[in-house]
Write a structure and sequence with these properties.
Helix content is 23%, strand content 19%. By secondary structure, the chain is of the alpha/beta class. It has one domain: Purple Acid Phosphatase, chain A, domain 2, CATH 3.60.21.10. A seven-stranded mixed β-sheet has the order 1-5-6-7-8-10-9. The chain has a six-stranded mixed β-sheet with strand order 4-3-2-11-12-13. A hairpin with a 4-residue loop joins strand 12 and strand 13. Bound molecules: zinc ion. The site of zinc ion (ZN) has 7 residues, from loops.
Length: 385
């Protein structure tokens, strides 16, 4: 059956943002332009999401190796987009390796990360990982006989001396700077979160609207900032409360399915993980299990809230490049994405987790699409039948 899906920032969240952000920080979107409605590209009644995790653009930018890795990541993204033709893309954090970026130009690499999706006119949303706003880490050998390599600053030629100084001297791009850049794109559905949740930024919800009943939602996609970089790796008690209150308001009775995305696995992932290096047996599904889960530093209540809410079907995280499994945890599924970028540790073949929503009867399917075109680890995470 035909159905159209609309994704839009939830109205309550939008009002909170509008009322709490000072006008100078308001992105164009929050200044009153809600994201456009999205329609299906075909009548197959599915809504397909490609999840790009841990791209790590900008690594060792002063060498030949770094930019080559970034070109390879471009190719992974393009080939997944060509093969899956998704309706939506989620960038699951660590778009850039900011600790390798010796100037506030992480934005340049952020732009590169989203460019293939933008060029194909596919809408997207981003959230932050632990590497997106880390401080620059000085390579020790820059202080030996090699010295500091000459580094291309991002400032324009016309910049004055003091502007160049500010731009070229070594400091990171902040989460706020990066998200400001992202939301300026028409296709971006990313959002600042409520200011009350600072320093975490990427906390927001998107609505996927029913085609058959356009006034009703068919699913909600939640994005949470799991920290790291400039502050601890954690989902705070305030964020957990925000999720609880927002989901109760937007989806009373928990009747509409919800999918939750963040970057760093919660401690619950460690509880259910198949032991590192062992085969991934049923009911878990996946293809690589080659490292220990590297979880958040603390658990402040988000997992209790999620598992007490029957509408939450799955949590999708990145961060561990050597894991790509889904395992059941109480009432929902905990899934890793798949390391997509050539940046970041690990040389396991690159790919992307795909999520496919079916409206009626409701189903949430997932699989992993590899750079070489193969697919594996197909699983149904939720279904009505
Ligand atoms: Zn990473």
């Amino acid at each position: 059956m035909n159905w159209v899906v609309r994704i839009g920032m939830d109205v309550v969240g939008f009002l909170i943002l509008f009322l709490t952000f000072p006008p100078t920080l308001l992105p164009a979107k929050a200044a009153g332009v809600l994201p456009k409605n999205l329609g299906f590209s075909s009548a197959n009644s599915t809504f397909r999401i490609a999840v790009f995790a841990d791209l790590h653009y900008g690594e060792n930018a002063w060498t030949d190796w770094g930019p080559r890795q970034d070109q390879n990541s471009d190719l992974v993204i393009s080939s997944v987009l060509n093969m899956e033709n998704p309706d939506f893309v989620v960038y699951l954090g660590d778009l850039v390796t900011a600790n390798n970026l010796p100037m506030p130009n992480a934005s340049k690499y952020w732009e590169q990360a989203i460019s293939s999706t933008r060029n194909k006119n596919i809408p997207w949303a981003t959230l932050f990982g632990n590497h997106d706003d880390t401080a620059f880490e000085w390579p020790e050998d820059w202080f030996g006989s090699l010295g500091v390599p000459s580094i291309q600053c991002s400032s324009s030629q016309s910049a004055t001396g003091s502007e160049q100084m500010a731009d070229c001297y070594f400091r990171r791009s902040t989460r706020a700077e990066l998200i400001q850049l992202d939301v300026q794109h028409n296709l971006s559905h990313s959002s600042y979160g409520p200011r009350s949740l600072w320093p975490s930024i990427s906390n927001y919800v998107l609505e996927v609207t029913s085609y058959k009943h356009p006034e009703l939602p068919a699913a909600f996609l939640y994005f949470l900032d799991s920290g790291g970089g400039s502050y601890p790796e954690v989902i705070s008690a305030s964020q957990a409360r925000w999720f609880q209150q927002t989901s109760a308001q937007t989806n009373p009775g928990a009747r509409i399915p919800e999918i939750v995305f963040w970057h760093i696995p919660s401690q619950a992932y460690s509880e259910i993980a198949p032991s590192s290096g062992s085969p991934i047996n049923q009911p878990c599904v996946g293809s690589i299990n080659l490292e220990e889960v590297a979880p958040q530093e603390a658990e402040w209540g988000i997992m209790d809230i999620l598992t007490n809410r029957t509408s939450v079907k799955a949590v999708i995280v990145g961060h561990n490049h050597g894991l790509d499994w889904c395992c059941p945890y109480k009432s929902l599924w905990l899934c890793f994405a798949r390391h997509t970028g050539y940046g970041g540790y690990g040389s396991w073949p690159r790919g992307a987790r795909i999520l496919e929503l079916v409206e009626e009867p409701f189903a949430l399917n997932s699989w992993i699409r590899m750079e070489d075109g193969t697919t594996h680890s197909k699983i149904t995470l939720a279904s009505e039948v």
